[in-house]
Structure formats: structure tokens, C-alpha cells
Specification:
The protein is mainly α. The protein is built from 5 helices and 4 strands.
């Protein structure tokens, strides 16, 4: 019996090497003779494998990913519309309160009512500003009078 050495291992590996090609012979059945005949163009096995990669990947993703359910926004849209209508109704009720409070005519639109209220608010703001200025002037006068009395 012969022992394996480095030289014999190399010889054995060279003798048993394999060659692979991405092309393989392709055959088709001849219906007349009922025999297989080789086609002139070989089939590309690597291209065929790569063509199924996307299909198998999609199948795996479909299998393991959670199911995505398309959400219907109709209930949310309905809720938003109802809320908007409620806010609009509140604004109309408030305009009617202003109409009664200030004895405004029934022909005035809601926009005109709010415009009137805006003008009233601006007038009140200027009056409050004048009143605050008068109070400040009085306070300054009292402070200056108190400080002069302390000096005497």
C-alpha cells in the first residue's frame, strides 16, 4: 500500500477536477420520430436561475411579511366633516348671540356681524389703552409727589 504524500495529493486533485459551464445542451422532442433532438443553441442555465430569483424572493417576502391591509379613510373623513360642521355651527350660534346682544338687523350676514364685532373690539382696545395711559400718568404724578414730600 502506498502512502499519500504532498506530491500524490496534488496528482489526485488534478485528475479529479471538475469543469462547469453555464451552458447546457437543450433538447426538443421530434413528434415524427418520437426521439429527442439536440438544439443548435444551448440553454443558459445561470440566466434561467437568475430569472427565478425575484419570484422566489417575492414569495419569501410575501410569506414572512405581515399582511398589509388597505385602510379605508371614509370613517376618518366622516369624523372630520362632522367636526368641521360642528365648529361652523358654533360660529353661527355665536354670531346669532352677537346679533341679539347688539340689536343688529336680521339682514346682516355672518361675515358682516363678525366684521362689526371686530370693529367694536378695536374701539374697546383703543379706549382701554387710553385709560391705562391716564392711570400711568396719575400714578407717575403721585409717585413724584410722594418722593418730593419725602425730601422735605
Amino acid at each position: 500500500m502506498k502512502y499519500k504524500t504532498a506530491m500524490t495529493a496534488r496528482k489526485d486533485s488534478a485528475q479529479h477536477s471538475q469543469n462547469f459551464s453555464e451552458y447546457a445542451k437543450d433538447y426538443v422532442l421530434n413528434p415524427g420520430t418520437n426521439e429527442l433532438e439536440e438544439l443548435e443553441v444551448p440553454k443558459n442555465i445561470q440566466a434561467k436561475i437568475e430569472s427565478y430569483v425575484n419570484t422566489s424572493l417575492e414569495a419569501a417576502l410575501e410569506r414572512f411579511m405581515p399582511k398589509v391591509v388597505a385602510e379605508d379613510d371614509t370613517p376618518a373623513d366622516y369624523v372630520r366633516a362632522v367636526e368641521d360642521l360642528a365648529i361652523l355651527g358654533d360660529a353661527m350660534d355665536k354670531a346669532e348671540e352677537y346679533r341679539e346682544k347688539f340689536s343688529l338687523p336680521d339682514k346682516m350676514t355672518y361675515a358682516e356681524i363678525y366684521e362689526f364685532i371686530g370693529k367694536q373690539a378695536a374701539e374697546l382696545k383703543t379706549k382701554l389703552g387710553e385709560i391705562n395711559k391716564k392711570k400711568e400718568v396719575k400714578k407717575d404724578a403721585q409717585d413724584s409727589q410722594a418722593s418730593t414730600e419725602q425730601k422735605i
